[in-house]
Amino acid sequence: MLTTFLILASLLAWPLNPATIDWQPALAFTDPWRSFSAAFVHYSPMHLAANVVGALLVGSFGWAAQVPRRMTLSWLITWPLTQFGLLVQPGLLHYGGLSGVLHAGVVIVCMQLMFEGSTSQRRVGGATLIVVLAKVLLEAPWRGPLSHPAEWDIAVAPMAHASGVGFGALLGFAAIWFGRAAAQTSVGTRPP
Questions:
Q1: What is the pLDDT of residue 188?
Q2: Distance of alpha carbon 123 from its chain centroid, rounded?
Q3: Is a pLDDT exceeding 80 seen at residue 33?
C-alpha cells in the first residue's frame, strides 16, 4: 500500500515545479512538510522511471518477505527522517526523489529477514544488506553533496542513500525489538 502511494504521488507530482515541494535545508524547519513531499520530486523522466521501478522492486521484496505492519510503519517513519539526514551536507541546496526512502525500505526488509526469517531468508537478507552497504560506501557520501554518474542525466545525492540506510537500520531494528517485546508481554500475560 505504501509503495503504491509513493508511486502514484510521484506520478501526480511530475508536472509540478520541483522547487515548490523539494527538500531544501534552508526551509527544513519552516516547511517541514517538504521532508515528505520531496520524495515525489523527480528532475527528469529517467529519474522518475528509475524510482518507480525501484519502488516496485522494494514493494515486491517486502511483499515476498511478508513483512509485518510494524516494519511498514518503521519504513513510513524513515521517510521524513531520511530527508532530515541530509542536513549533514548543507551544500545540498535541493533534493528530490524516492531513492533515500527506497534504500531505507530495502534495509528494513533485510532486517526483517535476518532477524525473523528462516535460514535461507537470513542469507538473502544478509547478502542483500551487504550489497546495499557496499553500494553506499562506493558512492562515498563523505566526498560531497552531489556526484555526477555518467549513466544518469541528473546529479545524484549519495547522502540520501546513506541516510536512508542508516535510518532504515535504526528503525528496522527498533520495530523488531518492539515486536519481540510485545510478543513476550502477550505470552507472559496469558493464563496457564
A1: 57
A2: 21
A3: yes
What is the pLDDT confidence band of residue 185, given thresholds at 50, 70 and 90? confident
Taking the C-alpha atoms of residue 176 and residue 192, their distance in angstroms, rounded to an integer, is 26
Q: How many other CB atoms are there within 10 angstroms of residue 48's CB atom?
A: 20
Question: Which of 40, 37, 104 minimizes the C-alpha distance to 71?
Answer: 104
Asked if 100 contacts 165 with a C-beta cutoff of 8 angstroms, the reply is: no
**Average pLDDT, stretch 58-73?**
96
Cα–Cα dist 22/148, whole Å: 19
Cell of 135: 553500494
Helix locations, the chain, DSSP H: 2-13, 34-37, 45-65, 69-84, 99-116, 119-139, 158-188
* CA 29 centroid distance within chain: 21
Name the residue among 179, 23, 3 with its Cα closest to residue 76: 3
pLDDT band at 189 (very low <50, low <70, confident <90, very high): low
Q: How many CB atoms lie within 10 A of CB 64?
A: 12
d(CA 47, CA 88): 24
**Cell 508511486, residue?**
7
Q: What is the DSSP secondary-structure string of 2-50?
A: HHHHHHHHHHHHTTS-GGGTSB-GGGTTTSTTHHHHGGG--SSHHHHHH
